[in-house]
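User: Before I run my own analysis I want an independent prediction to cross-check against. Here's the chain; please return only the structure tokens and, at the end, one sentence I can use as a sanity check.
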Amino acid sequence: MSPRALPRRRFLASLALAPFVPPEAGEQEPIRLRAAPARVSLIGPGFPSTEVWAYEGRVPGPTLRGRQGGRLLVELENGLPEPTTLHWHGLRGAAGSAFDPVPPGGRRRFELALPDAGTFWYHPFRGAAGQVGRGLAGLLLIEEVEPYPVDRDLPLVLDDWRLGPGGRNEVAASAHEAAGEGLLGNAVTINGRLAEQVAVRPGER
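Assistant: Structure tokens:
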């Protein structure tokens, strides 16, 4: 994927239906992101849950929202058994933050300037093949100053998982394999579920 953000209006198959985080949240208290092991139901009720690494216990992680020209304050807490980083993919001016690891049990705050509207995502940079493959990723939406005239904004995260017996997550064997293009897994999820249905009205934008 190009590091340049796609305009929101062209990125219709975007990422993650998750609770709205208002832009002003970053100006008051930091938005908390705890990376830690978790179990989630990827396949659905009646099937075994899958062991993942997740932000706030969810795959994908919470959708963070801001407004162009504003700022966002985020605090990362590392509950993993290894160091992790946080990379704001495509966000102009935030590249340097990806290379400072947070040790297990550590915390780090990120104050982000939001110069551009667009669809971005956040994920680890250190050990990315394994940590992203285990589920660590989330969506960052920067709204235009003048909202785009649609009836609803429905972001969708599409992901493929290699699931073994009992719903086990079989992460890509190497960074080289994980970097390849195309389908790697045997299960495709939308917003962290094997099947996701959204009701729409005729003529709705």
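Sanity check: The longest helix spans residues 128-133.
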